[in-house]
TrEMBL record:
Active-site residues per Swiss-Prot or TrEMBL entry: 115
Required cofactor(s): Mg(2+)
Organism placement in taxonomy: Eukaryota, Sar, Stramenopiles, Ochrophyta, Bacillariophyta
Pfam family, one: NDK
This protein's name: Nucleoside diphosphate kinase
Organism per entry: Nitzschia inconspicua
Length: 148
């Protein structure tokens, strides 16, 4: 079963949106298999966003992302990566559709409250980076009511 790395950024934590975001993934039918509140170091965050290190917004992004705790999560389910990205909405909140997390809950790209893996490959890398201790395997009692 596919897994994706979803992270509530410091603004999402500060604004009390953890419950709202978790609720959407839970209600969708995805299964939470790892979760922790953590204050990442600069080095840890730079590694997470290593592909963006040449961008002009990189320094600001790292400052933002290390400004407080983040809620790191792994969600599991069929199509979790692609569907997770759809649920988050477009990177630019001004372009995110209503009904998406970013479309409903934020205004600026530099305060867009959540992160989601953009491919299965990056999901695997991000899960290993944020959860070196491993994830929690469990069987959900609602499985037969979510999957045919
Ligand atoms: N970002 C930014 N300015 C930009 C583009 C991106 O501050 O012009 C930030 C934004 O918080 C975004 C993050 O950098 O979520 C990572 O960028 P990416 O292109 O990977 O977007 P995402 O995968 O988060 O949708
Ligand atoms: Mg990205």
């Amino acid at each position: 079963m596919e897994r994706t790395y979803i992270m509530i950024k410091p603004d999402g934590v500060q604004r009390g949106l953890i419950g709202e975001i978790v609720k959407r993934f839970e209600s969708k039918g995805f299964k939470l298999v790892a979760m922790k509140l953590t204050k990442p170091s600069k080095e840890h965050m730079e590694e997470h966003y290593v592909d963006l290190k040449e961008k002009k917004f990189f320094a600001g992004l790292i400052e933002y992302m290390t400004s407080g705790p983040v809620c790191a999560m792994v969600w599991e389910g069929k199509g979790a990566v692609v569907t997770g990205r759809k649920m988050l909405g477009a990177t630019m909140p001004s372009e995110s559709d209503p009904g998406t997390i970013r479309g409903d809950l934020c205004i600026e790209v530099g305060r867009n409250i959540c992160h989601g893996s953009d491919s299965v490959d990056s999901a695997n890398k991000e899960i290993a980076h944020w959860f070196p201790e491993g994830i929690c395997e469990w069987e959900s009692c609602s499985k037969a009511w979510i999957y045919e």
